[in-house]
UniProtKB/TrEMBL annotation:
Requisite cofactors: [4Fe-4S] cluster
Residue intervals of the NADPH-dependent FMN reductase-like domain: 6-145
One GO cellular component, as annotated: cytosol
Molecular function GO labels: FMN binding; oxidoreductase activity
Lineage: Archaea, Methanobacteriati, Methanobacteriota, Stenosarchaea group, Halobacteria
Domain of life: Archaea
Protein name, UniProt field: NADPH-dependent FMN reductase
UniProt record similarity statement: Belongs to the SsuE family. Isf subfamily.
Source organism of the structure: Halalkalicoccus jeotgali (strain DSM 18796 / CECT 7217 / JCM 14584 / KCTC 4019 / B3)
Length: 195
């Protein structure tokens, strides 16, 4: 990659004052520390409708998918809801496809009001693999999020450092060479609109 990579951080929370949004800003600090550029794609600003494959052409959808497509790497951030990632992020990802994610490096971040949100991260990893993205082995989580921030900043430096490391690793592997196509990837045709 001749120029520094550009990383898009997609927030899966619609809530004002979202802890996920705050954590993603920390990951973007790591992106900038690594010499790259970063951008927060706040899905609230795109007003994405619930996916309807018969009618998927709104200005917000086109702007969102273009921003994801143009990024060299992506960080997905989500709150954990009922043991998984948010419906808002699922809908945003449903508007995307191979054009946005195939062979793209993706970092994962999950935020939880309780303990470590491992299932949300696992579920996101599965979705990214279905899109033929290259998901970083390193992932970050912010458990007990209600006490993790004070004044918009992380309370504990080790949590902040884990999140910044996610940003740095996303940049480090943004230009990883794609593996040759395998049998499994040839079987992954994605959404065809034939639902």
């Amino acid at each position: 990659m001749a120029t520094p990579p550009h990383v898009a951080a997609i927030t899966g929370s619609l809530r004002e004052g979202s802890h996920t949004r705050r954590a993603l800003r920390g990951a973007l600090t790591g992106v900038e520390d690594a010499g790259a550029t970063g951008e927060l794609l706040d899905i609230v600003e795109y007003d994405l409708p619930v996916l309807n494959t018969d009618d998927d052409s709104t200005e917000g959808v086109e702007a969102f998918t273009a921003a994801v497509r143009e990024a060299d790497a992506v960080i997905l951030g989500t709150p954990m809801y009922h043991g998984s990632y948010s419906g808002a992020l699922k809908n945003a990802l449903d508007h995307c496809g191979f054009d946005e994610f195939e062979n793209k490096t993706v970092g994962l971040l999950a935020v939880s009001g309780g303990s470590f949100p491992i299932t949300a991260l696992d579920h996101l990893r599965s979705v990214c693999r279905a899109l033929n993205a290259w998901v970083l082995p390193y992932q970050a989580a912010v458990p007990r999020s209600h006490s993790a921030f004070e004044g918009g900043e992380f309370v504990e430096e080790d949590t902040a450092e884990r999140v910044r490391t996610l940003g740095r690793r996303t940049v480090q592997y943004a230009d990883i060479e794609p593996d040759p196509a395998c049998f499994e990837s040839e079987q992954n045709v994605g959404a065809t609109g034939d639902d």
